[in-house]
Amino acid sequence: MTSDAKKKMQYRRLGRSGLQVSVLSFGSWVTFDNQLKDDTALECMQAAHDAGCNFFDNAEAYAGGESEAIMGRVIEQLGWPRHSYVLSTKFYWGLHGRMPNMQNTLNRKYLMQAIDGSLERLRLDFLDIAYCHRADPNTPLEETVWAMSDMITQGKALYWGTSEWTADEIRAAWDIAEKHHLHKPIVEQPQYNMFSRRRVEQEYARLYEDIGLGTTIWSPLASGLLTGKYANGIPEDSRGALPGHGWLADRLTDPGQIAKVESLRPIAAELDCSLAQLAIAWCAANPRVSTVITGASRASQVVENFGAIDVLPQLTPEVMGRIEAVIR
Predict the structure, then answer these.
(1) CATH domain 3-222+284-313 topology
(2) For residues 190 and 165, what is the distance between their CA atoms, to the nearest angstrom?
(3) Given 11, 62, 85, 192, which residue is catalytic?
(4) pLDDT, tens digit, for every residue of 184-219?
(5) Where's the NADP-dependent oxidoreductase domain (predicted)?
(6) What is the pTM of this model?
(7) Is 62 a catalytic residue?
């Protein structure tokens, strides 16, 4: 990818914070370790970086910690200066099986130990963003907020946020932080795509203005459905065919959704882009989206996905209206 491609990248503030992230970013969910080992991961991350991507997303639970380890080794090998990229990871599921305090929790003991493990695997001194990967109804929210705030005070993270929390849970956490003068959650990482819209567009609507919430959205391609490659079933080399991902099969082969995807093809053709690029650009067209987290199993997919930056200016109100008529 050329330097011209890098110049096209847009950067947005993460909510009301001063942190700027590339509007298109790169994440490791599903692909790292399952489909990508170090060499291919390096090629993908370099391709994203060459396109102007400065935000890379991970999670403790991805591939049982190996996803973080791969990303850590790759960044060390690439030799990127620490100031040149933003890196996040997420905590909740744990890595220690059914051990008490170490699985499906956001209690203080788990969080304080989990971030140390992630930093070791990522070969970093600090995270830019630490997320609570899910809400924990069994731990007092105040305990979780204090622990996340303390991560920042201790210099182990710069910002913290949530992933797939309800609007009420996010607001309650923010209010606790406000009451005790703690570091507040600034960002939520929800699923968002043409087929999953309610949470970002409706549930969180008040939070954008009230608390300045940023969003780092995942699954812009609806696990690949919006690429159009599932029109004739599940290809053997696709995400839907991976062991342990059978739960995706019904969604990826839903006739109604496939029909909508096929109805988007003429629009993509008129814009001279792929369905994937159209779907990613559509997500980025929402000004409430700070960054769109993309994934890939090879560098050529990264190049294609990041080509969505050229499609974004073409999404005029007329084009967006035509898309809306198809997907609503």
Answers:
(1) TIM Barrel (3.20.20)
(2) 8
(3) 62
(4) 999 999 999 999 999 999 999 999 999 999 999 999
(5) 24-327
(6) 0.93
(7) yes
